[in-house]
Structure formats: structure tokens, C-alpha cells
């Protein structure tokens, strides 16, 4: 199974469009969104082509492919706009022989993780900084942001396939690969 992870669209139609183009090009089985989908948030500048209704329409057209968790910018009105569930604080997935906790990162992150043990994976967004690393036996993956990256990074997403995570830019270029132990 091939999974694509993306986070922090923040209402950018341009970022969402490019993300969905990459999803199609990747031929992934599912798109897992890690929150902050429609609203830009009061701490962020407006992203390129800020158009939350357009983002909702694009994502709703792909609703069968999407799994999603809530970010700190999601509210009940966002759920009213989206045709797939977006209000869960986390989801757990089994990736081969490892449990993966998927969350936005505002409630749980590298410093505050519930029910995690060595060999598990934490996949989170929120920081707008991509990451792929193993620390103390736990794998941490952050796909970055498809619309408002920080730290001088390009817009990014992550892919999981055949026991390997890769963080990629929106042209599909691989920035880092990490094989799961």
C-alpha cells in the first residue's frame, strides 16, 4: 500500500491543487490529511490563492480517498464544508508491523506523545517544517506544509511505501528517505 501524507493547506487553492496533482502522479492508495485544511489561522499570512470554498470543493471531489485528523484551525463549520470526517484528534494506522499515530501536532508532538513505544511511528504536521527521523526507537515524520512552509523550505508532503517514508517537494523531488526498522 502506498500512502501520501499532507498537512497545513490553510485554504490555499494553489497548494491544494498542486498537492492533488502530486497525489494523482504518486498513484497513492490514500491521502491522509493532518489538519489545518481550510482556515489560514490568525498567526499566518494569507496563503497563495486563499480560497477555502475552492479547497473544500477540490477535496470533496476526492473524498473517497481521504482520511483526515483535526488541526488547531479546524472548527465545526469546517466539518460542515467537508464531505469527509475531519474532527478526530488522531488516528492510528498499522504500517506493516508498526503502529503509526497520525495527529496534527498541536496536542501531541515529539515532546508529548500518548501510548507510544519503541518501533512505533508518529506522523504529525503543525510546525510547517518537514522532518523524517528516528529518535529513541520511535520514527517521527512531519510532511511539512503544502502552502505555508517555514524555515526556507519548499512546500512538501510525505509518502509511505514498501517500509520507507520519503519527504518530497511538490515537484516530486525526494528531500529525505527513511527506512522503517
Describe the structure.
The protein is of the alpha/beta class and 181 residues long. It has one domain (3-179): Metallo-dependent phosphatases (Purple Acid Phosphatase, chain A, domain 2). The chain contains three helices and eleven strands, in the order E-H-E-H-E-H-E-E-E-E-E-E-E-E. It has helices at residues 13-26, 52-61, 76-81; strands at 3-6, 30-33, 66-68, 90-95, 98-103, 121-124, 131-135, 138-142, 156-161, 164-169, 174-179. Strands 3-2-1-9-10-11 form a six-stranded mixed beta sheet, with helices on one face. It has a five-stranded mixed beta sheet with strand order 4-5-6-8-7, with no helix packed on it. Strand 9 and strand 10 (164-169) form a beta hairpin. The longest helix is centred in the first third of the chain and has 14 residues, at 13-26. The radius of gyration is 15 Å and the shape is globular. The two termini are 17 Å apart.
Summarize it.
The chain is of the alpha/beta class.
Overall mean pLDDT stands at 94
CATH topology: Purple Acid Phosphatase, chain A, domain 2
- General form: globular
Largest beta-sheet characterization: 6 strands, mixed
Question: What amount of the residues lies in strands?
Answer: 25-35%
- Strand arrangement within the widest β-sheet reads 3-2-1-9-10-11
Q: How widely separated are the two ends? A: 17 Å
How many E-type strands? Answer: 11
Outline the fold blueprint.
Layout: E1 3-6, H1 13-26, E2 30-33, H2 52-61, E3 66-68, H3 76-81, E4 90-95, E5 98-103, E6 121-124, E7 131-135, E8 138-142, E9 156-161, E10 164-169, E11 174-179
Helix pairs in contact: 1-2
Amino acid at each position: 500500500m502506498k500512502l501520501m501524507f499532507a498537512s497545513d493547506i490553510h485554504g490555499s487553492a494553489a497548494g491544494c491543487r498542486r498537492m492533488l496533482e502530486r497525489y494523482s502522479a504518486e498513484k497513492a492508495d490514500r491521502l491522509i490529511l493532518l489538519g489545518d485544511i481550510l482556515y489560514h489561522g490568525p498567526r499566518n499570512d494569507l496563503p497563495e490563492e486563499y480560497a477555502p470554498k475552492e479547497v473544500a470543493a477540490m477535496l470533496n471531489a476526492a473524498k473517497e480517498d481521504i482520511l483526515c485528523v483535526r488541526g488547531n484551525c479546524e472548527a465545526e463549520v469546517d466539518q460542515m464544508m467537508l464531505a469527509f470526517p475531519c474532527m478526530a484528534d488522531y488516528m492510528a494506522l498499522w504500517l506493516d508491523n508498526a503502529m503509526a499515530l497520525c495527529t496534527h501536532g498541536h496536542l501531541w508532538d515529539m515532546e508529548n506523545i500518548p501510548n507510544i513505544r519503541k518501533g512505533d511511528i508518529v506522523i504529525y504536521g503543525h510546525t510547517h517544517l518537514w522532518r523524517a527521523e528516528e529518535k529513541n526507537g520511535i520514527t517521527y515524520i512531519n510532511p511539512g506544509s503544502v502552502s505555508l512552509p517555514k524555515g526556507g523550505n519548499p512546500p512538501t508532503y510525505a509518502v509511505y511505501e514498501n517500509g520507507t517514508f520519503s519527504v518530497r517537494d511538490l515537484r516530486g523531488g525526494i528531500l529525505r528517505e527513511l527506512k522503517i526498522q
